[in-house]
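Continuing the batch. This is chain 6 of the set; chains 1 through 5 are on the previous pages. Same settings as before, nothing changed between runs. Recording input and output for traceability.
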Amino acid sequence: MKISLSKAGLTDASDILEMQIKAFMPLLHKYQDYETSPANETIERIISRMNQSFSEYYIIKNISNPVGAIRIIRKSNKTYRISPIFILPEHQGQRIAQQVFAMIEEMYNDAIVWELDTILQEHGNCYLYEKLGYKRTEHIEVINEKMTIVFYEKHMTYLDVNM
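Output for chain 6:
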């Protein structure tokens, strides 16, 4: 498996939305979070985010086939946020996300803190993020009686090679 990231442009917005809907639709059906689900977003919302100077989308590819996407948001003080990241259902469970996280951390190697959030009830997602070094924060948001969003942070530690 050859995973790569390709920086997305406005011409990729409809492809990103199509993959995002496919990836998040099972969760929308399960949790009925019609107000917050990425499966309910519009093309205008994707384009608006792409036009933000502090936001970058990447298409995740296996060889040359798109299998998902990730958005990186630059915040202040070398803090970055991942929102969203998704892998198409037929490509999940193949360690793609783990590879993508390693690639992103290398690309944004000035990061001191990474942030993301996920659904508490999606134990596989929580397990993955914790395995990658993310720690749950105290912040949670109850979306409805079926779904709670939990927030994670990963504090990067770098060894100074000059010491």
